[in-house]
Design a protein that fits this description.
With about 650 residues, the chain is α/β, with parallel strands linked by helices. It is built from 20 helices and 30 strands. The strands form 8 sheets. An 8-stranded mixed beta sheet has the order 12-11-8-6-7-14-15-23, sandwiched between helices.
Length: about 650
């Protein structure tokens, strides 16, 4: 699909083999694991043996495309695997979460504590009439009550639907109604950037249009300043609800395929999709991938900086890490609060050994400059991860040198809300990495890169990323809309799961993710990926971040416009604009030279930090803007639009 050659992305020629000191200690350091993955059913069944079952499965996989059932007939409860199992060992008193609030307050919850709090809330929810099969919406900031609430639902067989705390009352209402939740769990507020997020207030705004909701549970987080208006008969303080209940709660016996949770992803068009994940396959997939990819050991302190409102938090803050008995750091607030060194301060303070964040954050840290990092001792780190977008080779190298001090392997992990678990990633004790490539599929996973007709393309070329075989933690459907599930994921290439991402495999078989296929540009008959042009821009020493879009052009079909954020100390000048255009031409070819470059202090991003090229495209085409409800900061787009209408910066 993309003609501009793969060498462009490979301009960074360095390769990074696992350091011997890392390899010799790694959970996985024998490449034969990939051989074992060639019989996926056998392989996944072996993994499933590592968990606690009330009853074992009698069939590993029932595959009736696009309908998958894994570990058919198995009975289990995911919270037994995340909690009770550890209480029988020394991990009873091991920290499950080391939490820090934005104002600086702290809480440590051991596995024993977490088990107790989960059981208490589970009993509280039962007292509100929540039963197996019900749905519960959770609308909280990053406080320990968030994972507690999720696990309490799972304990009693109710499915949770976590809605990110940054969503508006309208978005919340839409998600509550789609899931038909009986209960909403929220807080009187949350801290972010020194300000209060009015969670309870938003719930009050949303609820008049939500007939399914019978009760609201409210955590007291802000106390004095929060609205705290409790509606008699509907609202209950969390602490009152659990005050006199037992701290024991028998786990509900769940079928392997019982619904564990719904998580909404907002596509670029249409209403949000309620991605449905079930119990056993999700547990097996998230726990095993977490253990392998992050090389989790009992003595590690692991920090995934995502918000639990996104799938990364579900799989790699809550379920995967807890199933592995990991100690995780959890942070409530903004990375720049009170100062731009908050993350590095926390890594030093808690001796974090594994750090997992997103390219958008890495590029922000690059922009802020290294003085914030140099103030702190980061020598506890031994492994770094990236997720959410393609990581530009330049950002990869920066991360490696400035955070990893040249000695930590980096795992660039590709996956989606729909895939439930990481599917393409290095194994840090085995894989030689190439900056900017997510490298190889995990054992037991069968992706492919195909052309428009669904035919596999040879190594060295690009196309659509698909999956040829089901995997345990895949989505099972779109909640309440099975037809849409089939249509969105399984209709473009019958029998193949379509990811929506463009991808190339190089001559060595490494996977290079190229962004959403909707973002790929067609310039003078050549496919050029936005990721490639953006990486060429970020490669320039003055550039922190870039977004590239194609706009209609009479002659070329599409022409390239670039939106560029400079490093904080750099001034935007006409000379720099010309220099950047030439830089791209030199890196990729004249074809990819942007027609226009706009300098901007911020790029429009989704609330989870992904660049929203669609909106930039609308601006570039002079069209009215489409749906902006998933935008993190709507003012960004307004100022860009104004700049564009004035004809440049
Ligand atoms: C986990 C998550 C999924 C989309 C996915 C792709 C992009 C995620 C990536 C990556 C390149 C990576 N994506 N990780 N692209 N390299 N390592 O982000 O889930 O929010 O559903 O987004 O994110 O485009 O299709 P989700």
């Amino acid at each position: 699909m993309t003609d501009s050659t793969i060498e462009n992305l490979l301009h960074e020629e360095r390769r990074f083999a696992p350091p011997n000191s890392f390899k010799s200690q790694a959970n996985l350091n024998d490449p034969r694991i990939y051989e074992r993955g060639k019989d996926p059913e056998k392989f996944w069944a072996e993994q499933a043996e590592n968990f606690e079952w009330f009853e074992k499965w009698n069939q590993v996989l029932d595959w009736n495309p696009p309908w998958a059932k894994w570990f058919v007939g198995g009975k289990l409860n995911i919270t037994v695997n995340c909690l009770d199992r550890h209480l029988k060992t020394w991990r009873r008193n091991k920290a499950a979460f080391i939490w820090e609030g934005e104002p600086g307050d702290q809480r440590v919850l051991t596995y024993g504590d977490l088990h107790r709090e989960v059981c208490r809330l589970a009993n509280g929810l039962k007292n509100l009439g929540v039963q197996k099969g019900d749905r519960v919406t959770i609308y909280l900031g990053m406080i320990p009550e968030l994972p507690i609430a999720m696990l309490a639902c799972a304990r009693i067989g109710a499915a949770h639907s976590v809605v990110f705390g940054g969503f508006s009352p309208d978005s919340l209402r839409e998600r509550i109604n789609d899931s038909q939740s009986k209960v909403v769990i929220t807080a009187d507020g949350g801290w972010r950037g020194g300000k209060i997020i009015p969670l309870k207030h938003n719930v009050d705004e949303a609820l008049p249009g939500c007939p399914s909701v019978k009760s609201v549970v409210v955590v007291r987080r802000i106390g004095h300043a929060g609205p705290g208006k409790i509606k008699e008969g509907r609202d209950f303080w969390w602490h009152d609800l659990i005050d006199e209940v037992s701290s024991k709660c028998e786990p509900e016996v769940m079928d392997s395929e019982d619904l564990l949770y719904i998580l909404y992803t907002s596509g670029t068009t249409g209403k949000p999709k309620g991605i449905a994940h079930t119990t056993a396959g999700y547990l097996v997939g998230t726990a095993m991938s977490h253990k392998w990819i992050f090389d989790i050991k009992d003595e590690d302190v692991y920090w995934c900086t995502a918000d639990i409102g996104w799938v990364t938090g579900h799989s790699y803050i809550v379920y995967g890490p807890l199933a592995n008995g990991t100690t995780g750091v959890m942070y409530e607030g903004a990375p720049a609060y009170p100062e731009k060194d908050r993350f590095w301060e926390m890594i030093e303070k808690y001796s974090v050994s594994i750090f997992y964040t997103a390219p958008t954050a890495i590029r922000t840290f690059m922009r802020w400059g290294s003085e914030h990092i140099e103030k702190h001792d980061l020598s506890s780190l031994r492994l770094l991860g990236s997720v959410g977008e393609p990581i530009n080779p330049e950002a990869w190298i920066w991360y490696h040198e400035n955070i990893g001090k040249g000695s930590c392997p980096i795992v660039d992990t590709w996956w989606q809300t729909e895939t439930g678990m990481i599917l393409i990633s290095p194994l840090p004790g085995i894989t030689t990495t190439k900056p900017g490539s997510a490298t190889f599929p995990l054992p037991g996973i069968e992706p492919d890169v195909v052309d428009e007709s669904g035919k596999s393309v040879p190594l060295g070329s690009g196309g659509y990323l698909v999956l040829r075989a089901p995997w345990p933690s895949m989505l099972r459907t779109i909640y309440g809309d099975p037809e849409r599930y089939r249509e969105v994921y399984w209709s473009k290439f019958p029998g193949l799961y379509f990811t929506g991402d463009g991808c190339k495999r190089d001559e060595d078989g490494y996977y290079w993710l190229l962004g959403r296929v909707d973002d790929i540009m067609l310039v003078a008959g050549h496919n050029i990926s936005t990721t490639e042009v953006e990486s060429a821009l970020v490669d320039h020493h003055d550039v922190a971040e870039a977004a590239v879009v194609g706009k209609t052009h009479d002659v070329k079909g599409q022409a390239i416009d670039a939106f560029v954020t400079l490093k904080l100390s750099i001034k935007a000048t006409e000379a720099l604009r010309q220099e950047l255009r030439e830089h791209v031409a030199k890196k990729i070819g004249a074809l990819a030279r942007p027609d226009e470059i706009y300098f901007t202090a911020e790029l429009p991003k989704t609330r989870s930090g992904k660049i929203m090229r669609r909106l930039l495209r609308d601006i570039a085409e002079g069209q009215t803007l489409g749906d902006v409800s998933t935008l993190a900061d709507p003012s960004v787009i307004e100022s860009l639009k104004a700049q564009y209408e004035e004809g440049g910066a």
